[in-house]
């Protein structure tokens, strides 16, 4: 087993937990049915974090040729995986089996927190590109989408305004469309 395979196994488990958290919450939301007051803002953030996990997992493919994996590198990328899991937990509202579920209120109470933590992830993404991905066209291209996403997430973290929150998640989701359609290269 190569070093890349070994560390990717660890990261993949953490990424899988994040994806499972989001998907299980979606299942719980569907099960809640009429008891649920849906929030497009919260759903947008859930989709954003799901896409972030996918993008990070795909981007690590560019490191497959690395012969050496210093402990600092392993820990940096493990930190990212853990941060993404925490974000998945934060955007996934607890859905009780009984009683009303108000996702609008949940986003109003928690949304600025997960937007701020996502801004940390964006800043960390930009930093890791400079430290580890300067030779990867995919990673460099990702920063073209990450800078506007960072600005939008900071705006969402700082403002309780529903209009600012809506504009921020719209910008972020548009950047994801652009990232996956135009910037994310093929896995060769």
Overview of this protein structure:
With 188 residues, the chain is mainly α. 77% of the residues lie in helices and 2% in strands. The chain has one domain (3-183). The radius of gyration is 17 Å and the shape is globular. The model has no long low-confidence stretch (mean pLDDT 90).
Helix content: over 70%
List low-confidence stretches.
none
Q: Give the H and E element order.
A: HEHHEHHH
End-to-end Cα distance, whole Å, is 20 Å
- Whole-number tally of structural domains: 1
Gross morphology is globular
Largest sheet: 2 strands, parallel
β-strand amount = under 5%
- Structure annotation, total helices: 6
Radius of gyration (Å): 17 Å
Detail the topology: elements first, then pairings:
Elements lengths: L2 H30 L3 E2 L2 H20 L11 H21 L9 E2 H30 L4 H22 L3 H22 L5
Parallel strand pairs: 1-2
Helix pairs in contact: 1-2, 1-3, 2-3, 2-4, 2-6, 3-4, 4-5, 5-6
Write a concise keyword list for the protein shown above.
single chain; 188 residues; mainly alpha; two-stranded parallel ribbon; 77% helix; globular
